[in-house]
Amino acid sequence: MTLADSRIDRYRTRTAVAVPPVERTDPTVWGTVSSPVLESFDADGYTIIDELLTPVEVADYATEMNRLAADPDLRPDQRVIIEKTSNRVRSIFEVHKISSAVAELVRDERVAGLARQVLGSEVYIHQSRVNYMPGFQGAGFYWHSDFETWHAEDGMPSPRAVSLSIALTDNYEYNGSLMVLPGSHRRYMPCQGTTPDEHYRESLREQQIGVPAQEDLAELADKYGIAQFTGKRGSALLFDSNIMHGSSNNITPFARSNIFLVFNSVENTLVEPYAGTRPRPTYIASRDFTPLR
């Protein structure tokens, strides 16, 4: 019997037969709800923070991210994900270890401090990456809950994690901006199907396993509605690990890119994956649980 077999799994998924949704009992805000930002986050599972970064900071980070995407020495790195059709850089993972500028950003009190408030504990970086969605050719991300994947494929016990997407370009309604289902963080949607080993090699470019059935998505959208993250560069979207979200392709001339940071509680560290697969590489799901200082 493996460790995964002997655990009580409150969030079953990747099952052979369909499993009904689970109403979430875990908190959304694990600390004290002490501000309008946290009130909004608690109610809707997300909140938008205008002008998290200054225009000068945005310009500096955008320059750094463009440099990384154009670096020929970095392109063969396994942490660099290439688009299936355009052959352009889609994401660069573990970017806080590649870029000293991002390493400073993740420790910034505006960033890590916010994660500590939400999670009610010290935090560490579960995942970091920069996402690129170029004009005309940027591919979207299908509807999914991050926690479903992190639970199944990384062994994250509970949804005590939070993501921060910081816009380096303007987010319009029409250039592939992120869509969320407000309130859907309170309902966990199990997914049917087995998880192949090294599934991440395909899912990071196009996810097909670990997504709800279309009829379940339709029910969620009917119940919760759809909201979009739009705003100027430098704004940020703080969102719960279990909220249902996705984005469409970008067929406009206006590129969209963002720095994406995932903070996990040091009281919610990873165990063996609940889907029974081998753990994903640490550049996708860190197993260094050292608190950020």
Any key phrases for this structure?
293 residues, seven-stranded antiparallel β-sheet, 13 strands, EC 1.14.11.55, Jelly Rolls
Summarize, please.
Its EC number is 1.14.11.55. The protein has helices at residues 3-6, 36-44, 55-70, 95-98, 100-107, 112-119, 146-154, 200-203, 214-224, and strands spanning 22-23, 46-49, 80-82, 89-93, 123-133, 144-145, 161-167, 179-180, 187-188, 227-228, 236-240, 244-246, 256-265.
SSE map:
Blueprint: H1 3-6, E1 22-23, H2 36-44, E2 46-49, H3 55-70, E3 80-82, E4 89-93, H4 95-98, H5 100-107, H6 112-119, E5 123-133, E6 144-145, H7 146-154, E7 161-167, E8 179-180, E9 187-188, H8 200-203, H9 214-224, E10 227-228, E11 236-240, E12 244-246, E13 256-265
Antiparallel strand pairs: 1-9, 2-11, 3-4, 4-5, 5-13, 6-12, 7-11, 7-13, 8-10, 8-12
> In which range does the helix fraction lie?
10-25%
The CATH topology is Jelly Rolls
Radius of gyration: 18 Å
CATH architecture annotation name: Sandwich
How is this structure best described in words?
This protein has about 290 residues and is an alpha+beta fold. Helices cover about 25% and strands about 20% of the residues. The chain has helices spanning about 5, 35-45, 55-70, 95-100, 100-105, 110-120, 145-155, 200-205, 215-225; strands at about 20-25, 45-50, 80, 90-95, 125-135, 145, 160-165, 180, 185-190, 225-230, 235-240, 245, 255-265. The chain has a 7-stranded antiparallel beta sheet. A 4-stranded antiparallel beta sheet has the order 6-12-8-10. Strands 1-9 form a two-stranded antiparallel ribbon. The chain is globular. Mean pLDDT is about 90; it is low at about 1-5.
